[in-house]
Amino acid sequence: MRPPVLLAVAHGSRDPRHAATVHALLRRARALRPGQRMETAFLDFDTASVPRVLERLAAAGAEEVVAVPLLLTRAFHAKADLPAVLREAGARLPRLSIRQAGVLGPSPLLTAALERRLWEAGLRPRDRRSTGLVLASAGSTDPEAIAVIADMARELRRTGWCAVRPAFASASPPRTDVAVRALRGDGCPRVAVAPLVIAPGRLPDRIAEGAREADVLAGVLGPAPELARLLLARYDEARAAVGHGPLAIPA
């Protein structure tokens, strides 16, 4: 029996760098698991919409799909937007079993991908104690999502960074530049900004703008090997979940 199709669902952006980076992440995942069918869809902006890709898969004879959100926290898109799109598609495509996997974060693999980007930007692991870190995410009005970012910042602090402060490009304070200045005030000799975002776009550009006074700006997570492994892990967890019906999508 063929394994379910892995459908990676990204947010989408008008910025062409966004889709290019998502496709690069999927290429990395395919290299880790040859033979696994993987497709990409987008919630907004891109023509490869989730309904259109699911219709194409159903027409090609696919029987099962696991939709893995390329989202880092359980905010609106993971809790409401994507489930609604999947439920509607499932009603129109009754022969296609659709399951939604969990979001990517939090995970030690996500933390490892963040630190990989920091080392690539010029820091070394031994620089942690003299470096304050801004964990900069896109932002959300969802308290659960904000709490996850705060928890990640605390976990990173325990690994030896001088100090760690969360920041947000939208919706919630503080902004990146405010967090950078706060770390200077904390007495950290060096300040680095780690974007907790998968692909370039308007909000990541806003993070970069706010990082101008920082000493180090890491790149977006993109096709980091750890992120590709995390994508596959969420797919495997959804496949292994017990008690699911033909349409296991969170309400």
Word description of this protein:
Helix content is 43%, strand content 18%. The chain is α/β, with parallel strands linked by helices and 251 residues long. It has 2 domains: 5-104 and 225-248, Rossmann fold (3-Layer(aba) Sandwich), CATH 3.40.50; 108-217, 3-Layer(aba) Sandwich (Rossmann fold), CATH 3.40.50. Strands 2-1-3-4-9 form a 5-stranded parallel sheet, with helices on both faces. Strand 7, helix 7 and strand 8 form a beta-alpha-beta unit. Helix 2 runs parallel beside helix 3. The chain is elongated and about 60 Å long. The two termini are 29 Å apart.
Short description:
The protein is built from eight helices and nine strands.
Determine the strand fraction and express it as a percent band: 15-25%
Determine the number of helices (DSSP H or I, runs of at least 4 residues).
Answer: 8
Radius of gyration: 19 Å
Specify the helix fraction band: 40-55%
Order of helices and strands: EHEHEHEHEHEHEHEHE
- CATH fold-level topology of the largest domain: Rossmann fold
Overall average residue pLDDT:
93
Give the CATH class of the largest domain: Alpha Beta
Low-confidence stretches: 243-247
* Annotation, overall tally of beta strands: 9
Task: Report how far apart the termini are.
Answer: 29 Å
**Strand order of the biggest β-sheet:** 2-1-3-4-9
Count of folded domains: 2
Overall 3D shape: elongated
Q: What characterizes the major β-sheet?
A: 5 strands, parallel
Indicate the structural class.
Answer: alpha/beta
Going by CATH, the architecture of the largest domain would be: 3-Layer(aba) Sandwich
